[in-house]
Design a protein that fits this description.
Length: 615
């Protein structure tokens, strides 16, 4: 019978002795880690080397992949996939049992084989990542079907796939343009009574943002729990959806390796589209890290990020799960800080980390984008969380309780801003959200085509979200209540209407100055109303960006924010493009191209400020 010390000596390789093995086993027990993972990480051996040595010492065959030559055996229930460690697969002319056991599971298996020597021939050892890859292939049809249809089971009257028929989309596009034209035309009516309609519509979104600006930033309350010990910390799943991102893999893996979280408690899943072979190859080269695994998403419509996330969701093992994109560089302590936040606020089901633009000094676009992000993630979203209203989430660094995310059905595979849509669904189920100042660094697009494509997708997704949830207004009111419903309508509608109204009004002003045409309101209430709307709109937007940049330590970018009115012109162009896409290709995903940075951007010291949505 093989002892634990003997097996560990074999894993550590030549030159190790019983003392080394005993020390490593004691360390693993102290932190609550599987000795296989602890050895792979602390001795930089790699999980393949560790598993191969263990299998060879115990007399079992080792494979780094599972190959099947017959029909794959798919589990009947996708929610069981995360915990499967043993499968029987037909390989060539016989059934082979592939197992991905832990350290003590290997010892138990070896003891069983001593009683039944045929197990040495019938059982092959594989890494856990290889087991997940096989299960994803074997269950691919079931997983794709669930990814596309599972949300419908939870929300039969609020999914983009069913609610966004062609008539609805075309009707919305026409109605939106008519509303914009009507609001722009009202100031040229001689009567004063339309002001009673016009002023609230034009001013309320600005007043909401002004109120958000006045919400003070408060320090987080002291921790009610001590710093977590490794054996007390829950498993944290990390999803990294990727498509055509081969160049970003080294940077992303480096950022994830720097996370200050016990390696044996990290469950990092790269979710890569099958039609991205270079990205798959780049990730495969990283799978020697025991924290990483790869899932390949079969080529199937819709070709969206949320469909890939839904495909991977059954494989998550954590109590919590977070999404990071290819270009993300989260602060190393982000998971620990968010975990403490969850424990301080057990009513929270989602926490949005703060996204900060790292390349703001590289041009006008990045500088304006940085100001916009600073205003959104450092000012506006924390205020929405403080008020307890609908909070449109950012597309990355969303931390969820896994049970809550599964309970609402996951993401809408057909919504191209699945983040904002998910924020509405959480609010409709009265699941509270919060924000954290734990930072994730990102890079803004530096070219106009890249920026317009990304912004058009965002705008189309907000339109989708607005339409889907308003298709059945009584149900929406019943779920949200009047206060949250009004907040949702104001926030999302203003995101779409604001740039178009700004551009239309500016165009009228320029036409008047150039040609003296139709004439602007010159005196009286209409003239005063127009001045107030423009002054407040510009002033609050610029002030929000300035306050946000101060909170993120990016004060050097403040002068560029004076160009916001011109930036809004480009947003209007992206909005019109989004409107066209919504009408004719509603579920098309416009891919944003990313490039790795030479070195991580300097990270300013940020105060640990966090806000919570009150239930």
């Amino acid at each position: 019978m093989v002892s634990a010390s003997q097996l560990m000596q074999a894993i550590l390789g030549p030159g190790s002795d019983e003392r080394d093995a005993g020390q490593l086993l004691a360390e693993a027990q102290t932190v609550g880690a599987d000795p296989l993972i602890h050895a792979a990480v602390t001795r930089a051996l790699g999980i393949d080397v560790v598993m191969r040595r263990a299998a060879s010492f115990l007399g079992f065959a080792f494979f780094d992949v599972i190959s099947d030559t017959g029909d794959p055996m798919s589990p009947a229930r996708p929610e069981l996939l995360a915990d499967i460690r043993v499968v029987r697969v037909r390989t060539i002319d016989r059934l082979v049992t592939y197992a991905a056991p832990g350290f003590f599971g290997l010892l138990t298996l070896h003891l069983a084989a001593l009683g039944d020597p045929t197990l040495f021939r019938r059982v092959c050892i594989v890494p856990h990542a290889a087991m997940k890859q096989y299960l994803a292939r074997a269950a691919s049809d079931m997983l794709i079907t669930q990814a596309r249809q599972n949300l419908t089971r939870h929300w039969p009257r609020a999914v983009a796939q069913l609610e966004l028929g062609k008539a609805v989309r075309l009707g919305f596009a026409i109605a939106l343009l008519l509303v914009v034209a009507g609001l722009l035309a009202l100031p040229f009516i001689d009567a004063a009574w339309p002001i009673l309609v016009w002023m609230p519509v034009m001013l309320v979104p600005t007043l909401v943002r002004l109120a958000a600006l006045l919400v003070p930033e408060r320090a987080a309350p002291p921790d009610v729990v001590p710093d977590e010990q490794p054996f007390d910390m829950p498993i944290y799943s990390v999803l990294g959806p990727l498509r055509d991102e081969a160049e970003m893999i080294d940077q992303l893996c480096a950022a994830l390796n720097q996370l200050d979280y016990p390696a044996h408690r990290l469950d990092i899943i790269f979710v890569v589209e099958e039609r991205s072979p270079e990205t798959i190859a780049a990730v495969t080269r990283k799978l020697n890290n025991p924290r990483f695994c790869l899932l390949e998403v079969p080529h199937a419509l819709p070709l969206t990020k949320p469909k890939a996330l839904d495909f991977a969701l059954p494989f998550c093992r954590g109590e919590f799960v977070v999404v990071f994109d290819a270009e993300d560089r989260p602060e190393p302590d982000q998971l620990r800080r968010v975990l403490r936040h969850f424990r301080r606020a057990p009513n929270l089901h989602c926490i949005q980390a703060r996204l900060v633009i790292a390349n703001g000094r590289k041009g006008v676009f990045p500088a304006l984008f940085a100001g916009e992000y600073a205003g959104l993630f450092s000012v506006f979203l924390p205020a929405l969380a403080h008020w307890g209203v609908v909070m449109p989430l950012g597309g990355t660094s969303n931390h969820f309780r896994l049970s809550s995310l599964r309970a609402i059905g996951g993401w809408d595979a057909y919504n191209v801003t699945e983040d904002a849509d998910l924020g509405v669904r959480l609010a409709r189920r009265r699941l509270a959200c919060g924000t954290s100042t734990a930072v994730t660094w990102e890079d803004a697009p530096e070219t106009l085509p890249g920026w317009v494509g990304q912004r058009a997708r965002w705008m189309k997704g907000w339109m989708q979200t607005f339409l889907v949830h308003n298709r059945h207004p009584r149900a929406l009111l019943a779920d949200l209540g009047w206060r949250r419903l009004l907040a949702f309508e104001i926030i999302v509608a203003s995101m779409v209407l604001g740039p178009l109204l700004h551009t239309g009004f500016l165009a009228i002003c320029l036409f008047q100055m150039a040609f003296g045409g139709i004439g602007l309101p010159r005196i009286g209430l209409w003239a005063l109303s127009c001045v107030v709307v423009m002054a407040l709109g510009y002033g609050v937007a610029i002030a929000t960006a300035i306050v946000g940049l101060r909170r993120t330590g990016q004060g050097a970018l403040i002068p560029a924010q004076l160009l916001l009115p011109f930036y809004w012109l480009l947003i209007a162009w992206a909005t019109l493009r989004a409107l066209r896409d919504l009408a004719f290709r509603p579920f098309h995903w416009i891919k944003t191209r990313h490039s790795p940075v030479a070195a991580s951007a300097p990270q300013p010291a940020l105060p640990a400020l966090e806000r919570t949505v009150r239930p």
